Amino acid sequence: MASLPPKASLGYQVRIAHRAFDRLLAARLAPFGLKAGYWYYLRVLWLREGLTQKELGDAINVKENTTVAMILGMEKDGLLTRKRDEIDRRKMCVYLTPKGRDLEKKLMHIAPEINEAATKGISKRELEKCLMVLHHVSENLQTIDF
């Protein structure tokens, strides 16, 4: 069996970077009383409301049961509301409340600030290549059945 040291493991390095992003994001959202997990849902909903719960989960690449639990928490915290789809009454569509919508102005500066800190000392060309490679890796992994 071949050894794969952590420094040479793509999965390990991506996980470490993700955890660092998450810790910083959680610290930046805490003063607003928000959980870090809310961020991903808010980002999608700021761009497009009225998604079904499944569409919202798919946009974030999260299973539907996790999405439902997060939506219930966000609904309880007054950030969003759910309404039955007018065409297919079985589906629930997700909409931001005024409180959830107003957070965009207060929070959207956080993402560029964290990204800027994370990419300090990395050239634009290196960053573009990194993003392209990570996108390709994600696409490859999505084709694997497990």
UniProtKB/TrEMBL annotation:
<keyword id="KW-0804">Transcription</keyword>
<dbReference type="Pfam" id="PF01047">
    <property type="entry name" value="MarR"/>
</dbReference>
<keyword id="KW-0805">Transcription regulation</keyword>
<dbReference type="InterPro" id="IPR036390">
    <property type="entry name" value="WH_DNA-bd_sf"/>
</dbReference>
<feature type="domain" description="HTH marR-type">
    <location>
        <begin position="7"/>
        <end position="139"/>
    </location>
</feature>
<dbReference type="InterPro" id="IPR000835">
    <property type="entry name" value="HTH_MarR-typ"/>
</dbReference>
<keyword id="KW-0238">DNA-binding</keyword>
<dbReference type="GO" id="GO:0003677">
    <property type="term" value="F:DNA binding"/>
</dbReference>
<dbReference type="GO" id="GO:0003700">
    <property type="term" value="F:DNA-binding transcription factor activity"/>
</dbReference>
<dbReference type="InterPro" id="IPR036388">
    <property type="entry name" value="WH-like_DNA-bd_sf"/>
</dbReference>
<protein>
    <submittedName>
        <fullName>MarR family transcriptional regulator</fullName>
    </submittedName>
</protein>
